[in-house]
Amino acid sequence: xxxxxxxxxxxxxxxxxxxxxxxTALDLLAxxxxxxxxxxxxxxxxGVSLGNAYHYFKSKEHLIQAFYHRTHxxxxxxxxxxxxxxxxLKARLLEVLRLKIATLEPYHEFAGVLFKTAADPHSPLNPxxxxxxxxxxxxIELFETLVSGAQTRLPTDLKAELPYLLWLYHMGIILFWIxxxxxxxxxxxxxxxxxxxxxxRLITLASNPLMRPLRKRSLQFVAEIRDLELAEG
Amino acid sequence: xxxxxxxxxxxxxxxxxxxxxxxTALDLLAxxxxxxxxxxxxxxxxGVSLGNAYHYFKSKEHLIQAFYHRTHxxxxxxxxxxxxxxxxLKARLLEVLRLKIATLEPYHEFAGVLFKTAADPHSPLNPxxxxxxxxxxxxIELFETLVSGAQTRLPTDLKAELPYLLWLYHMGIILFWIxxxxxxxxxxxxxxxxxxxxxxRLITLASNPLMRPLRKRSLQFVAEIRDLELAEG
DNA sequence: TCACATTTCTGAACATGTTCAAAAAACTTC
DNA sequence: GAAGTTTTTTGAACATGTTCAGAAATGTGA
Lengths: 233, 233
Fold this sequence. Notes:
The structure is a homodimer. Chain A is an all-alpha fold.
């Protein structure tokens, strides 16, 4: 589905070590959270030197870049059957979001940090920034698949921006989930139910010809956000 | 306007030192940005020991808490005349947002970090979290003033949630501004113009009796976000 | 004014993210 | 298979956020 991953290592041995370090890191992160997972602990548990860990990952934050990537892949695989099964936009969106949360759930403990630097333009972790561009593209692509394969009829201008809009929305849901400490994350799932319903209605409303001016204006604003990202890429 | 600031020091001397450290820190932060402003540099320039800086500010991040507070005060003072002068919701909102950006502008360089941990529930910097509650209250209060003094007629349910909604919106604008590197921040000001207009229209639309069900549902969602904050406070 | 308590202040020590020169291992070429 | 090159790996060193025991200064009550 994506051809973005050029090999990061030059030898099989290197590849092996890189994977080892990453797996070890993800284990520790899920177990202890971000702050308490030190680079030294990762290196030690993986049986490599500290410097070696830094050979494969430029910084601790870059490990998280890899996390983005891996969970996205997982989520994608889980979502494909949904696209086979469900044909309405609403049902697709609902399922895909639920799957996203389910995919991330093991990492809730340290997920705060995932978005920690979401707002920092200089951070490599910034999902809007340059370093995250490949993952972001893949992630938005999933919503393109979601929209393009849905039966719902949409105005073309809205249809063009909808994948990106839904991606933004899904980021919002993740943000909610991060702050959600309710049992079994019940709150997040409820919010998903409600907002998906809401979005479905809003789309219907926005598709009304009478709404054209307001819709145009809204979409113009969305485009502005998109441009911003390009500018800092 | 707020009675949230209990003295943090026990003696006049302490108060003086605290202020000195804070001012020095804000100077350096505006000048060099967050990462390049070390606690040692702050202490040195302020002429105190490193440990002393930590006596008054629990951590580097807590310095930013103080920043929130100070810029809010500044923004509030600048906004009061607007509330005298402008009576329409739209005009008030427009001016208040412009003033907010103008207030923050000197700190654009390090502003990324302001919101850096916005998404991290554990961080004291988290504007939704416990530590930031006083500043957040004050900040929302400003939008209460903005709404309650406006002449615009609103459904009561919407009117109740609008201050909080506008506060969220203003956070979004700041997020945009942080990522905006256009000359004179032209983009941000344009986005403010457009979104304020958009919001004004949306409010009109939402006030339409026909929209009642959709409005109710949307407001229910907003309440959910609000509750989330309470839960982690 | 003196003794005691509290607050302010210091400097050293520690933990952790990060860098780097150089050794060891793996790979390539002839 | 040997020489040379590239990649992998190491361990020590550094910078910075943070902590802490205790000294110095300040405030308080008799």
